[in-house]
Amino acid sequence: MPPAPVCPCTSGLRYRQCCAPYHRGEAEPPDAEALMRSRYSAFALREVGYLWKTLHPEHPDRSRPEADMLRELRTSAQSHQYPGLVVMDRSPPDAQGVAQVLFFAKVFERGKDRSFVELSDFRHDGTGWRYVSGVLRPLGELSGPPEQLTRATFPR
């Protein structure tokens, strides 16, 4: 029997021990970083229902019809590959309950590099951590290696 696949979130764990329980609804990610990693894995594995579920009620896409969002996510997933993720920085929740994660997402669309760095905001909605918003910077807008950025040096 071949070994279980490594999780796309690059935690180093096997998928079944890492993001799979979140994707299957068996558990909630314990913090914002775990949610961000599980969302990256969901993009990589085309778990579009999970991507919808983990949007915070304040996220603008939540005002759109769920069926439309799921269809768009499925269509997009067909042409994208997600070969790796690097988490560079994170913060615990602030006084408003917002936690931040700075990450470098490696993404390719039909062979073209679409990788980016994002500083994302997450908030707990009473059930679990949810994605609120993010500021995304394509690699071409950065002056140095993305892995060297911190929340303090991220270009806003």
From TrEMBL:
InterPro entries assigned: NTF2-like_dom_sf (IPR032710), YchJ-like_M (IPR048469)
Domain YchJ-like middle NTF2-like stretches: 31-134
Matching entries from Pfam families are given as: YchJ_M-like
Protein name per its UniProtKB record: YchJ family metal-binding protein
